[in-house]
């Protein structure tokens, strides 16, 4: 009996240590007290009489027209809120499979950066409690099973956007020669929120501001500095160079042509905590 109790106690201790290690692995780089204050930094979300709200309405309606297109399919996929998805999403930008097994340092860095970016929106979300477009217009999003949780969570700023843009900024620092591909994906990740109908464009814009502010503050964190150094060393070991020219998601000429066609049609293009909280 004593041996059994000892074994159980040892197993419980091991589980506690493992759980604590996992919490540290997923912990944001900044506490809420250290986080840039979005209530101070950001303007209030636009009122319905503001010109900015007209743009919100316009982008929302353009998003409705994209829902049955390949871009709409991508936007729906981007609604998944997980470290695994975000790692796979950016893997195509750098030409390396990012995951906990093959690139543990890079995966660890972007996981904590993602958590920090998402958390950066909590205070202004709670302060403004802005209603989401699908609530205002009484229309379903492309992810109806998320709507109940989303409706109870403030729309401004977009936490998905802040999370994705924080990862893009950090990963562009690890892989500077792939920065254009990384940042292109980071931008589109935020725009996906307008297409699925979960956010207004001004929510997405504010999310990028909060991500940028959080990443700037993260550079003061010793943990972040150490993790960034480890990720850069891992990247150099895998590629053989500190900076490798990676294939672009879209070459510059093609990107310019797409933007030109899109602008001619008046378009505006546009993926962890609770997976549906942002």
Looking at CATH, the homologous superfamily is Phosphatidic acid phosphatase type 2/haloperoxidase
User: Using DSSP, what is the number of strands?
Assistant: 0
Average of the residue pLDDT scores: 85
Rg, Cα atoms, Å: 20 Å
Query: The CATH topology, please?
Result: Vanadium-containing Chloroperoxidase, domain 1
Overall tally of structural domains: 1
Query: Order of SSEs, N→C?
Result: HHHHHHHHHHHHHH
Strand content: under 5%
Net shape: globular
Intertermini distance: 49 Å
- pLDDT under 50 segments (min length 5)? 6-23, 243-250, 261-277
CATH architecture designation: Up-down Bundle
Counting DSSP H or I runs of 4 or more residues, the number of helices is 14
User: What can be said about the biggest beta sheet?
Assistant: none
- Can you give the helix content as a percent range? 55-70%
Structural class: mainly alpha
Name of the CATH class: Mainly Alpha
Summarize the structure in words:
Helix 6 (104-119) packs across helix 12 (201-218), helix 10 crosses helix 12 (201-218) and helix 11 (179-196) runs antiparallel to helix 12 (201-218). The protein has helices spanning 2-26, 38-41, 51-66, 70-78, 83-94, 104-119, 122-128, 133-136, 147-151, 159-174, 179-196, 201-218, 222-239, 252-264. The protein is mainly α. The chain has 14 helices and no strands. The longest helix has 25 residues, at 2-26. It is globular, with a radius of gyration of 20 Å. It has one domain: Up-down Bundle (Vanadium-containing Chloroperoxidase, domain 1), CATH 1.20.144.10.
